[in-house]
Each structure stands twice: as C-alpha cells, then as structure tokens.
Amino acid sequence: MWDMHGGGGWWMISGWLWVILFWAVVIGLVVWVVGRLTGRRELPPGQERVTPQEIARMRYARGEISREEFEQIIRDLSER
C-alpha cells in the first residue's frame, strides 16, 4: 500500500521543493508590499538620508538655484 514502486519518491521531493518555493515567494511579496505601503526604504550601508533642506543647500552651493529660490524653498519646507 505504501510502496512507491521505486520512483514515486522523487516526485514527492519535487513537490515539497515547489511548496517551499511557493511560500518563499508569498512571504517575499508580503514583505515587499508592507515595505512599499509603509514608505520605509532601506539604504545601502554607509549611505545616509538627505533632507530636502540639505538638497536645497547643495543645489544653491552648486549654483543651480538663486538665493531667492533657495530662500523660497526653505520657507515652503518649514511651513509643513
């Protein structure tokens, strides 16, 4: 009754591998969706988050925006 006739064992192992792969994909998708919905983004090691004010300061320092534009950006961001 329990005899696999010499070859059924491989199909059982293959079936378990598919089940494990399926659940790994499901768990990975859940983690990805939760990360996207919470807005949490992981940065690579050694990289820091840059605030919008710092971006404005860098753009002003590079001459990409004028002093008036820089001051307006800082005012707009501080109103939040």
What does this structure look like?
With 80 residues, this protein is mainly α. The chain has 2 domains: 1-42; 45-80, no CATH class. It is built from 3 helices and no strands. It has helices at 8-38, 52-62, 67-78. Helix 2 packs antiparallel against helix 3. The chain is rod-shaped. It starts with 7 loop residues before the first helix and ends with a helix. The relative contact order is 0.06.
Q: Which short descriptors sum up this protein?
A:
single chain; 80 residues; mainly alpha; 3 helices
List the helices and strands and how they pair.
Layout: H1 8-38, H2 52-62, H3 67-78
The helix fraction, in percent, is 55-70%
Rg is 27 Å
Query: Per DSSP, what share of the residues sits in E-state strands of 2 or more residues?
Result: under 5%
* Topology pattern, helix = H, strand = E: HHH
Structural class designation:
mainly alpha
Strand tally = 0
Largest sheet: none
The 3D shape can be described as rod-shaped
Q: Which whole number gives the mean pLDDT?
A: 83
Q: What is the first-to-last residue Cα distance?
A: 72 Å
Separate helix tally:
3
Total tally of structural domains: 2
Unreliable stretches, pLDDT < 50, 5 or more residues?
A: none
